[in-house]
Design a protein that fits this description.
The protein is mainly α and about 70 residues long. About 60% of the residues lie in helices and about 0% in strands. The longest helix is centred in the first third of the chain and has 42 residues. The N and C termini lie far apart (about 75 Å).
């Protein structure tokens, strides 16, 4: 490969990278919308179990560094 071919390759890769960065948010939005639509259709059908939401995690214990314990 000579210098012109390497420059062309770098330019092509940069262009493809920019294209991916521009298209990625749209693709992620479409996937999210389809997932929501699937859940809504499942909720409208009678007799089917609803998808469960993940349980909330308890708050982590807070440590008081160097502070005295409350009475």
């Amino acid at each position: 490969m000579n210098g012109n071919q390497i420059e062309g390759l770098i330019g092509m890769l940069a262009t493809l990278g920019i294209l991916v960065l521009l298209v990625l948010p749209s693709v992620l939005g479409i996937v999210r919308d389809r997932r929501i639509d699937r859940r809504l259709r499942a909720a409208e059908r009678p007799g089917t179990p609803r998808p469960t939401e993940p349980a909330e995690e308890p708050e982590p214990r807070r440590r008081h560094h160097g502070a005295a314990r409350p009475a």
